[in-house]
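A student in our group prepared the protein record below, which I am reviewing. What it holds is a sequence and that sequence's fold in token form. My question to you is simply how this chain folds and whether the tokens agree. Do not assume that whoever made the record got everything right. I have pasted the whole thing underneath without changing anything:
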Amino acid sequence: MSKVYDWFEERLEIQAIADDITSKYVPPHVNIFYCLGGITLTCFLVQVATGFAMTFYYRPTVTEAFASVQYIMTEANFGWLIRSVHRWSASMMVLMMILHVFRVYLTGGFKKPRELTWLTGVVLAVLTASFGVTGYSLPWDQISYWAVKIVTGVPEAIPVIGSPLVELLRGSASVGQSTLTRFYSLHTFVLPLLTAVFMLMHFPMIRKQGISGPL
């Protein structure tokens, strides 16, 4: 076993990486409120796992979406548990994200030299809200339908580009199959990919610059 470890150590310097991770200095003023970002990340990972599990049963069509959600909740093994964890973790993720943003703002974590960390965090906050909007539509019940109709209709108030923007969001002149397909694609592929990219930008910055000092 030691020979295998030595082989990897010689090429990857595993011990140096481990030492860097475990020996990072943590300022004495850090408290539980500095864990809110990590909790948000944990919720995101739970969302990915439970969401991936539900893709095996969910059908993104206007005729089958609601029935497939019912199947997940009533017939699929542990489906009710997986969807419930997904839903509650989504609410927790939004709450922790909001509290994290407030904590960073109130402690001045957005100031020089952490402006880029703050900007990537704001983008992640917008992506988190977008997860909520797109995910809310997927059961395709009455609440989902009218929520999507209202949300996608908001840009129509914008002069000149309002109507084309609404049609871009809906995929057609009215809310229907094209809308559900777009929201499903956004929720399961585009938003997770963008979130992962910005997290890979956000966390190394925190790692490099460290935690901001007390006010």
Notes: The chain has a mean pLDDT of 94. The chain is about 70% helix and 0% strand.
